[in-house]
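A.,

Following up on our hallway conversation. Structure tokens first:
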């Protein structure tokens, strides 16, 4: 099964909210979600990297939510639909923002200079990161408050926002902490070796 087939299968199986079909249509037909990189040079900076990252975060989040201690301490009542929504869609803010440019790079084998492609960002809707994802998703489906907070604060303390606000959000909304943990695990541990 390809990454795209896996994503669509999980999406269709888990997400049943009104507007989900239109959201999936947007991802497939009006965005570059399935081909975009996840970043310009950090994690998954390759074609299809955003899709792979979303699946990695989904796997990490569902594994995290199954830990007995997590269930006991946080008493997370997160259902499968919420987990799928926040994990698969947390970085929807990255669709349609990457462009390919070229730069000169010396070929180590030949010693010749060559034009090589690289990704740059051309964001036509500069609305932040997590908040932009919440905004975009909300145009199709209604999010619960905990889902919206999880997506908004999924960068955790690696974001640029006020640390007190981040800490308060992660404390108040356990799904936000769980998604942030899953996002970091996917970005730094799983995907660090994929590049």
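Then the amino acids I'd put at each of the 195 positions:
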């Amino acid at each position: 099964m390809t990454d795209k087939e896996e994503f669509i299968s999980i999406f269709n199986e888990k997400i049943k909210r009104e507007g989900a079909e239109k959201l999936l249509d947007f991802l497939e037909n009006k965005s570059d979600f399935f081909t975009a990189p996840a970043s310009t040079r950090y994690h998954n900076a390759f074609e299809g990297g955003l899709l792979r990252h979303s699946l990695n975060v989904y796997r990490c989040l569902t594994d995290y939510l199954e830990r007995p201690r997590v269930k006991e301490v946080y008493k997370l009542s997160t259902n499968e639909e919420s987990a799928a929504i926040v994990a698969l869609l947390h970085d929807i803010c990255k669709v349609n923002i990457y462009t390919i440019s070229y730069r000169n790079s010396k070929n180590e084998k030949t010693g010749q200079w060559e034009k090589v492609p690289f990704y740059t960002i051309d964001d036509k809707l500069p609305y932040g990161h997590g908040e932009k994802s919440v905004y975009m998703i909300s145009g199709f489906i209604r999010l619960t408050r905990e889902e919206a907070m999880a997506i908004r604060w999924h960068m955790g303390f690696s974001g640029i926002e006020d640390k007190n606000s981040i800490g308060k959000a992660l404390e108040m909304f356990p799904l936000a902490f769980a998604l942030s943990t899953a996002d970091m695990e996917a970005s730094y541990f799983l995907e660090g070796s994929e590049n």
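Strands lie at 98-106, 113-121. Curious whether your intuition agrees with the design.

B.
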